């Protein structure tokens, strides 16, 4: 007799160990809200600049709609290499590799599947980007968390206490999601020195590199965010187009680093993503020549609004980049961040509890990637909730 079909039996333990996104749960709670004040979405509120859109349209009309080579279009790779070597002259002549990926998230998946496996440990800051812990689980490795409260700096001193013979990688994210904190120049210098001392691979996720409000001088003449890549090419270095150019749905990023690792990531991409979207790669060449300073300045002003309105009421590490802030729920309220966010949703405000990004449930994330009117409304609601 045929047994009833049981789909659950086909799902692996590795996938069962991955929770559904806590952000999705917030949206489920908010499903019935009408015109909510949304400070939860982590994507720019502006559209892709016209020259970049036109470059993609022109590529489609020229027939650039087929697969590219797995490693990416030569024109885009050359543009990335030029930008990297101008910003970081210490990379010239080191024989590094370059892979164009389907977003930085695609690069993260390839890197972890290439470099981490069962028995390995991957160190990350707590709080962390929500994807990190689950990708480590998918790779079969163990996530090790470094508490960075209250300043959210992943310092070498904090890291070293967690290094063991099984430590394989350090995930380094600056500017940070969810805190908006930018690693200092000294932290970047010390962390890459620590990684080299212990022969650990540092992965520097810099998806928000343009959204940096306290930049440092670079040989290119254009101030940039502090980066461990300034001090060594012996790391995996990732940047992307989603946040800087509002190309979140276009899925384009790149990874540069040791050639042997990039070659293996390229092999894995061949059997997974195949390649990044062809017409988007063409547009990426134009994007890298597009000045986004005016957009970044608008976001700096939004950051200032957040700090000025909330700073005297909430404990808040000043965001130096990205478009997030990570305030602490006032202790006098006696609420976890999850309960506080439920209360916020009841007041028509969407924010994300810190437990989505952390082993603590004391803080919450707001995104100021919205128009100023909505941001002002949201901040006013937060001030009322703090009472």
Task: Record the SSE blueprint.
Elements lengths: L12 H4 L5 H8 L7 E2 L11 H12 L12 H14 L9 E5 L1 H13 L5 E6 L3 H10 L2 E6 L8 H5 L6 E7 L11 H13 L3 E5 L30 E5 L12 E5 L1 H12 L7 H10 L5 H18 L13 E2 L11 H10 L2 E2 L1 E2 L10 E4 L4 H14 L2
Parallel strand pairs: 1-10, 3-4, 3-5, 5-6, 6-7
Antiparallel strand pairs: 2-8, 7-8, 9-12, 11-12
Features:
Aspartate Aminotransferase, domain 1; single chain; 387 residues; 2 domains; three-stranded antiparallel beta sheet; 13 helices; globular; seven-stranded mixed beta sheet; 13% strand; alpha/beta; Aspartate Aminotransferase, domain 2
CATH class of the largest domain: Alpha Beta
What kind of sheet is the major sheet? 7 strands, mixed
Question: Which strand order spans the largest sheet, edge to edge or round the barrel?
Answer: 2-8-7-6-5-3-4
- Helix count equals 13
State the helical fraction: 25-40%
- SSE string, helix = H, strand = E? HHEHHEHEHEHEHEEEHHHEHEEEH
Number of strands: 12
CATH homologous superfamily of the largest domain?
Type I PLP-dependent aspartate aminotransferase-like (Major domain)
Structural class: alpha/beta
Uncertain residue ranges: none
Q: What is the level-2 CATH architecture name of the largest domain? A: 3-Layer(aba) Sandwich
Strand content: 5-15%
Question: How would you sum up this structure in a few lines?
Answer:
This protein is α/β, with parallel strands linked by helices. Helix content is 37%, strand content 13%.
Structural description of this entry:
- With 387 residues, the protein is α/β, with parallel strands linked by helices.
- The chain folds into 2 domains: 7-47 and 292-385, Aspartate Aminotransferase, domain 1 (Alpha-Beta Complex), CATH 3.90.1150.10; 66-287, 3-Layer(aba) Sandwich (Aspartate Aminotransferase, domain 2).
- It is built from 13 helices and 12 strands.
- It has a 7-stranded mixed sheet, sandwiched between helices. Strands 9-12-11 form a 3-stranded antiparallel sheet.
- Helix 3 (50-61) runs antiparallel to helix 10 and helix 11 (293-310) runs parallel beside helix 13 (372-385).
- The radius of gyration is 21 Å and the shape is globular.
- The model has no long low-confidence stretch (mean pLDDT 94).
């Amino acid at each position: 007799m045929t047994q009833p079909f049981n789909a659950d039996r086909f799902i692996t333990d590795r996938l069962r160990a991955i929770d559904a996104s806590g952000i999705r749960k917030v949206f489920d709670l908010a499903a019935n809200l009408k015109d909510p004040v949304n400070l939860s979405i982590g994507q720019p509120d502006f559209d892709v600049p016209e020259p970049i859109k036109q470059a993609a349209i022109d590529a489609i009309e020229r027939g650039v709609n087929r697969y590219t080579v797995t490693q990416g279009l030569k024109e885009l790779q050359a543009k990335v290499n030029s930008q990297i070597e101008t910003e970081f002259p210490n990379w010239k002549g080191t024989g590094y590799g370059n892979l164009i990926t389907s977003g930085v998230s695609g690069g993260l998946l390839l890197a972890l599947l290439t470099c981490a496996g069962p028995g390995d440990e991957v160190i990350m800051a707590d709080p962390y980007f929500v994807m990190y812990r689950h990708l480590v689980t998918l790779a079969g490795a163990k996530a090790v968390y470094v508490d960075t409260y209250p300043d959210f700096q992943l310092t070498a001193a904090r890291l070293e206490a967690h290094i063991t013979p099984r430590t394989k990688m350090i995930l380094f994210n600056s500017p940070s999601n969810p805190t908006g904190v930018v690693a200092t120049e000294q932290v970047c210098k010390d962390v890459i020195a620590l990684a080299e001392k212990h022969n650990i691979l540092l992965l520097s996720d810099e998806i928000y590199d343009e959204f940096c409000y306290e930049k440092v001088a670079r040989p290119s003449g254009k101030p940039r965010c502090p980066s461990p890549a300034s001090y060594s090419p012996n790391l995996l270095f990732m940047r992307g187009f989603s946040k800087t150019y509002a190309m979140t749905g276009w899925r384009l990023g790149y990874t540069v680093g040791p050639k042997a690792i990039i070659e293996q990531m390229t092999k894995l991409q061949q059997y997974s993503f195949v390649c990044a979207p062809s017409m988007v790669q063409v547009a990426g060449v134009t994007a890298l020549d597009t000045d986004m300073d005016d957009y970044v300045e608008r976001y700096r002003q939004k950051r200032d609004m957040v700090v000025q309105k909330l700073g005297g009421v909430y404990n808040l590490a000043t965001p130096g980049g990205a478009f997030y802030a990570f305030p602490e729920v006032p202790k006098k309220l006696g609420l976890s961040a999850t309960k506080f966010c439920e209360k916020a949703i009841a007041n028509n405000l969407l924010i994300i509890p810190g437990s989505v990004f952390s082993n603590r449930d004391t803080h919450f994330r707001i995104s100021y990637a919205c128009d100023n009117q909505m941001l002002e409304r949201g901040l006013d609601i937060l001030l009322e909730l703090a009472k």
